[in-house]
Amino acid sequence: MSADNGLLIAGIHKSFGAVPVLRDVTLAVPSGEFHTLLGPSGSGKTTLLRIVAGFTPADAGQVTLAGADITDTLPEHRNIGVVFQNYALFPHMTVSENIAFGLRMRGIARPERAERVEAVLRLVRMTGLGHRRPANLSGGQQQRVALARALVIKPQLLLLDEPLSALDRKVRQEVREELKRIQAETGVTTVMVTHDQEEALFLADRVLVLEAGAVRQAGAPAEIYRNPADAFVAGFLGAINRLDAVVEEGGRIRVGKQTMTPAGELASVLAGAGRLGPVALAVRPEQMTVTPGYGQRPADALGGWLIAAEFGGPVVTVRVEVEGQALAILCLSPDILASGPWTPGMPVWVRIREARLL
Question: Where in the chain is the domain with CATH 3.40.50.300?
């Protein structure tokens, strides 16, 4: 496996005492790409980031950056920028002094330091705020300062450890858009740790899903979202419905006492799988449609009952029961409001456009 001039992590193992934290983790991050390490608490993602940064030694395996083996290199000699979850800004220093700290430690002359600090302040859109101290900044501004401090040294690799978790939702959305812009403008190879699925899908060129110290799946965000490798990945990466069914001869599906003839993408998935008998369908909420269930049931639909229609602004989450199984369906508000009213207990027709067999 090669990462060109980027990052290569090969066969990393790490245990704390008798507890294994990472088990044979291998990952290649090509130069200029943005990868996210996604997983629940305790999955080993932060430990892996610390091993790459040099803060924690691995028990086995190798870390290569830009073609050089840095497995045993001291952190200060790795030319890696790190942004921590708590920002780690020096409260007694101004914004400019915080950003220039790494340059000063590297012996960069004062005129060049000043020039590079001003350039990175422009990059993170904080021009004119260099005189302020961290206590006089908002959370989003502090995060930008931490990012500027990591970028001003012109690192070969940028590591981000849950960088947006301390921000409220609105500010987090704003900062992540800025983060994506800055990474694209600088072209710095980036690895970010997060447990936020939406964040990982929005930012990353590739996502690595970790669970219990092992890689469950790696790939492009859309590929992992649409084709999860197993039930864990399917359930962790976004909302998912599990529908227990039986595939019968002729490609029909039986759910409880109902039999339907799948259409479109679902029919192709079932035909390609070539399986008969009990299956579990993993269906994203947006991969289904729901309509009022009056008249004769269509051949490609299942009959159910409305539990609730939960208004969420631009979208409505429609919760239904089909043969004793609860499902959540995501619909655009104009579509649902135009076909209402939606009263709990009313009959509905549910169609499945696409699904993944587990």
Answer: 7-235
- CATH code: domain 7-235 is 3.40.50.300
How much is the pLDDT for 149?
93
281 neighbors 243 (Cβ within 8 angstroms): yes
User: In 3D, which of 332, 349, 352 has the Cα closest to residue 264?
Assistant: 352
Mean pLDDT by 10 residues, the chain (358 residues): 77 95 95 94 93 96 95 93 87 94 91 94 92 91 91 94 83 88 94 90 93 93 89 86 91 92 87 87 93 91 95 93 96 84 94 88
Say if residue 134 is preceded by a cis peptide, omega within 30 of 0: no
Please name the residues in contact with 81: beta carbons below 8 A apart, sequence gap of 6 or more: 149, 150, 151, 153, 155, 157, 158, 159, 188
Third-level CATH fold of 239-357: OB fold (Dihydrolipoamide Acetyltransferase, E2P) (2.40.50)
Residue range(s) in the chain whose domain bears CATH number 2.40.50.100: 239-357
At residue 349, the pLDDT reads 96
pTM of this structure: 0.86
Tokens of 302: 């299942």
